């Protein structure tokens, strides 16, 4: 296997745990900023986990027919493209 593809697969595999590590500590601030209840904030965790699970299901089925490389080369930019136009958040004051 090509070394670059191996590194790309390793990075993509780490997205799930990395997203949870970033997301969970932000839950109290998310609740305060959005003015939402604890149940609504916990639903966002459920949605994140469901998204990761469905993504793995699709990412497992599609490469079986098309191969890993084309799926990664299309999927990574497509998955990150919604975040490109987002403006940076101003720093919070503690």
From TrEMBL:
The chain crosses the membrane at residues 36-59. It comes from Nocardioides bruguierae. It comes from the Bacteria. Gene3D superfamilies: Multidrug resistance protein D (1.20.1720.10). This is MFS transporter. Keywords: Membrane, Transmembrane, Transmembrane helix. SUPFAM superfamilies: MFS general substrate transporter.
């Amino acid at each position: 296997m090509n070394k670059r593809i191996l590194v790309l697969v390793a990075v993509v595999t780490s997205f799930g745990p990395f997203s949870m590590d970033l997301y969970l500590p932000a839950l109290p601030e998310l609740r305060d900023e959005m003015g939402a209840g604890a149940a609504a904030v916990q639903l966002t965790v459920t949605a994140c986990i469901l998204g990761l699970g469905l993504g793995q299901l699709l990412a497992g089925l599609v490469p079986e027919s098309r191969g890993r490389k084309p799926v990664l080369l299309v999927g990574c930019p497509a998955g990150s493209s919604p975040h490109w136009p987002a403006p940076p958040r101003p720093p919070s004051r503690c």
